[in-house]
Each structure stands twice: as structure tokens, then as C-alpha cells.
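Reminder: ligand-aware prediction takes two inputs, not one.
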Amino acid sequence: MERPAWAPRSIDISVPSVSRIYDYYLGGSHNFEVDRDAARKAMEFLPGLPKIMQANRAFMRRAVRFAADRGITQYLDVGSGIPTFGNVHELAQSAVPGAHVLYVDNDPVAVAHSQAVLAGNDIADVVAADLRKPQEILSSPQRERLIDLNRPVALLLVAILHFVEDADDPYGAVAELSEALAPGSLLILTHASYEGIPVPAERAEGAVDVYKDIRNPLIMRSRDEIARFFEGYDMVEPGLVPMPHWRPESAPEDEDPFAFSGFAGVGRTA
Ligand SMILES: C[S@@+](CC[C@H](N)C(=O)[O-])C[C@H]1O[C@@H](n2cnc3c(N)ncnc32)[C@H](O)[C@@H]1O
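Here is what comes back for the chain with S-adenosylmethionine:
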């Protein structure tokens, strides 16, 4: 298989990756046959997976606009993924000219493509780091240059925490990042769950197994378990809800039933 220019030498292009599978669901072009095969296999169990991803992106866009409307000028997006239509820096910087945006991802394709997209943008950057090591994010030169921790930050953990296993202490990682944030900061989060999926959990498990096979397990958590990530935050109305129910701009009745899988919420530090 030929290696395209956007694929760093360090990656094994015969192994599917979470970020490239997601890129495929969103209609992007930064994915390989192995990623498309894995995505199609998961879709045999959950045909609505692209709808779930689109609902996730739509929530993220509404939440960034919400943060911008409340005067937040700094965005720390951990697990930002391969840039696609409606990126956080485009949304934030068009709503708040001069908004600073820092992307973080541990996937080399996501990092390389973000670097390419951000070339020439002095107020947005990307760090190759891992959510499981919050200090690497907080002490990075890019964080020091772009994100002033004495002022409110919107911390985005959108569709990432379900890739962090309990053994890797996702609650500890979120707490460590949250403790570094100034009062008035926001936590913007989505998370996969068996709750709300319009097929029996046993069937959805087939899709979960695809991620297990690529050694990047998808951890389905209950609503209560997801709510615990917001410890120390006050929930912004309407709380932790299925994605289309979070401050919709049009009637959620129009949505595909799959869009109601998983949960989204925004919390604010006092
Ligand atoms: C499903 S994508 C979500 C992208 C974007 N946040 C969105 O919602 O559109 C998940 C991203 O999280 C990244 N990721 C997974 N585990 C990570 C970790 N421990 N540290 C940093 N990034 C991680 C993956 O590489 C991938 O790009």
C-alpha cells in the first residue's frame, strides 16, 4: 500500500486507528482501507454509527458557540482528532476573533494534519500528548504560549473518554486537568453509552468488539458513571443528556434514533 504524504513515517498503516475510522464516518479522506474495513464491520452491528458521530460534532459546535457567547477566549481540545468540517479553531475564532485554541491528540495522523491545517495561524496549535498524562499537556510549551491558566478555559473532552480504560484512571486525569483551570472554566464532554442506543446492548456489543480487536477498546459507561466526570462542576442546563437534546437549534424530533445514543454535557467551575 502506498503511503500518502499526510501519513507520518512513524505509523503502521496496516493497523486501523480510532481517529481515521472516525474520519471515515464523517466522510473525510484521511483513512485507509483497513480503517474503512473496521468502520464497516462496526456498522454491521450499529448501522447508525455515522449518525452518532454527526450528532457528536453538532453538539460540539453548539457547545463551542455557547462558550464563545459567554466570553471564553481559550479552548483546550483534548482528543481533537483529524481536522474536518467545522473545527474548533474555525468556530471559536469566527465567534471570538483572537480566541486561542490548543489541540491535543496522541494519534500521529491527527497531529500531522492539524499542524498542516494550522500553519500560519499564530493563535492555534497542536500538541502530541496523551490524556492519560495530563502533566504533559499542562507543561507543554504550546500550552504555556497559548492557554493562560489564570483565565477561564473551555476544556473539550469530546468523544475521547470512552477510549480511556478504568485501569488508566480517566477520572483522575479529568480531575487533574480540571484543577488546573481558573474559575468560570467549562468542561464540554461527550461519551458513548449503551443507554439510548436503539438496538439491544448485545447487538451493540458487536461494534464495541471491533474496537477491542484493534486494541483500542471502546468503554461504554452508564449515565451515572459519565456524570462523575463533572465532579466539581455545576452542570449547565439542560444537564447531561442525549446529544440532540443539548440546547438544540432545531426540533430534535427530526433526528435519526441513533443520534440519541450516548451523552453530552457542559459543566462550569464556580
Ligand atoms: C472519536 S475521535 C474524536 C475527535 C473530536 N474530539 C470529535 O469529537 O469530533 C477521538 C480522538 O481521541 C484521540 N485519543 C484517544 N485516546 C487518546 C488519549 N489517551 N490521549 C489523546 N488522544 C486520544 C484519538 O486519537 C482520536 O483522534
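The two ends are 52 Å apart (CA to CA). The mean pLDDT is 94. We will return to this case in the review session.
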